[in-house]
Here is the input.
Amino acid sequence: MSQPNVLLLGPPGAGKGTQSSNVVDEYGVDHVTTGDALRANKDMETAHGAPREYMEAGELVPDPVVNEIVQAAIEAADGFVLDGYPRNIAQAEYLDGIADLDLVALLEVPREELIARLSGRRICADCGANYHVEFDPPAKAGVCDRCGGDLVQRDDDDEETVEERLDVFAANTRPVVEYYDEAGELVRIDGEGSPEEVWTGLHEEIEAAT
Ligand code: ADP
Ligand code: ADP
Ligand code: ZN
Here is the structure.
């Protein structure tokens, strides 16, 4: 059987990256994530300027840039977990034309909890692994368990940019949630428990969908 194609939706800090790692470990699919791809190419020249300008303001990078990244990654993948895309209706319509999804799962987490998660998030500068200073600390402070790399705070995880990103989610990406909901494709997952509890719920849904 072919590998699952999973779309994870949710606001910044909901745990999409964390749960994507579980999907990759369980199913051996590719992790397709526009956030990581853009962070690795912040100063890439595009017809719309560099991604950095948008990202540091917490705004969306223009659709043609992200559409191209996602299309190339999906075409190269045998099964994927897609995280961070689509973030508006135009991207959702583009995705309809390039992929068949087995599961669209929304991680639901209240705003106060999102802010606590984002303010304590640390990522590995070398491999991109995710940590939290309180909720998911590494064995040794500041050092990645997986590769020994330095753990850093993302530029856009400061308080002001977090507020802006949550507002951008409400304005642009909530309609994407409704788009899949109206099509009868959306599965809601309680994202508030521990990472293990959330994974139990998500894993069950993937098994049921494939
Ligand atoms: P988070 O996981 O906290 O939601 P991401 O790593 O997915 O954040 O995204 C970081 C930033 O990268 C966004 O604030 C935005 O500027 C840009 N970005 C990521 N994905 C997209 C997308 N699909 N469309 C437009 N911009 C994007
Ligand atoms: P997203 O990709 O949706 O922005 P992340 O997976 O990066 O979210 O998670 C945001 C932060 O919250 C990270 O620091 C991560 O370690 C932490 N985190 C993820 N899932 C949980 C959870 N279920 N409970 C508490 N903290 C979590
Ligand atoms: Zn690492």
About this structure: The two ends are 9 Å apart (CA to CA). The mean pLDDT is 96.
